[in-house]
């Protein structure tokens, strides 16, 4: 496939061959594999190919709108497609359009609505709305046979050389621009030239040829009313050459115009299973490959060094502590053994700690399964909204694992009110997420955007939360609380030990800064692609890369957490429970800093509500990432602490 042959030659020296083979396996093009049941549609000659509208989007406002929020031509009956949960949450409102497209049938120019002697008239209010959407850089998204429309962009890499030597780099932009502005004037794209590509299926003799749609492109044009010649049969004639002027939209008065379109079909060698390659190889992935491999090498190199240092130091410590003939000298030393009687002392607020860790386990299981399933190609972009739907349902069903881990830890921390603990686990993190989303949704409602979650969907989400997630958390918590608590290798003293004064670098915030660098360094390139997918309406499809990065994230969080708790215990500070949970999630602080950087440098958002949406959803991402990385680090540190204190002789 097209996307597979783009691996740069510089990345294949023999010493990196294992890494390259692993990455090639993990990033095998997901677009060639579809969920059973998503079968291709075969068209015969002159069969209708339905063009549907999805929504209008803009990276400047982050507010999607449904297609008919603007005065486009409407069919006699408007029919909305039944949508899944993910599509509703994304703001998709898929609806039929009046475009009449027949398989392998050309149309030179046709008027969409209005007659030759009576063009369409936009009122002052409609003109103002259209002008506002154009000035906000809105894109229109259409689909044909579930394939999104794209605008071809031809970029020339050799600008200084001869015209013949110029290398043309073709990229595709999702959707098409609603219009454009030039010298403070606003112009609407009122003519669409559809270019559809079909693949002719090989059949036996005496059988009628069947066709499959494999690409959907559009060339939007702005042609003023006077330059379009329409007849009584709704056909029209486009002006020749570049003599025509664009269709201006004056927001202060009524505007008359025609909406027209043309259809052109071309045969293509692209097979149906590979038709998404055009959309998924929109940008050069060489930098992506190089950065990911660098992250892999650097992180494993640093992790190896950390492991060697800490293992050698620990072996020396344990050997010294276990010398029977040197007990008095050992007792006078400072070190982690001196706090053995306090290291497992339950922390403050054990219920909240265990609840947050339970939600972290829920998130971890959900993310791991979603990325793995997506890596296998079962959540490809053709299954619209499937990723978000799967994530929502998985989070609900993973409540049983979150409840079990939270219940067992709560009992280990000498907790007794398991029912209250289970309710806290089921409602604390989801309640914060729901509260923030509800507040943001109110602002989106006020803008009449399709991104606002409808009230019935909100009720359905609440029913899922209290009808599926809450009972499962209670079930898991009940069994976790009944299970034998974690076996701590040393007894806890009745009187707490005095903690010596700590050095400046043992400060909690300094620890967060130090612990967050390594995990963030492993994933910040992937973060750029994820942010582009979320905020700039791009497709994200490199789930093989993401799975590898997730594994590296788990390894680096565990390593750094162990190092931080070791230093803390060596400083004779045994209050490690909460501190380790906070410090292990230190990379979330860098994610927040990166999100601010991305907002300032990459996005052109200036209004209040889009900015509020950006930082509201960013806060949810940072909170979730902190829970995830904090939970990974906490359990790694807990296993490490139990291991080292089990290895020394305690009098």
TrEMBL record:
Domain of life: Eukaryota
Segments traversing the membrane: 289-311, 355-379, 385-410, 422-446, 458-481, 509-535, 541-569, 581-600, 612-641
Keyword Transferase listed: no
Signal sequence interval, chain numbering: 1-32
Subcellular location as annotated: Golgi apparatus; Membrane
Principal location class: Golgi
PANTHER family in UniProt: TRANSMEMBRANE 9 SUPERFAMILY MEMBER 4 (PTHR10766:SF55), TRANSMEMBRANE 9 SUPERFAMILY PROTEIN (PTHR10766)
Family: Belongs to the nonaspanin (TM9SF) (TC 9.A.2) family.
Protein name: Transmembrane 9 superfamily member
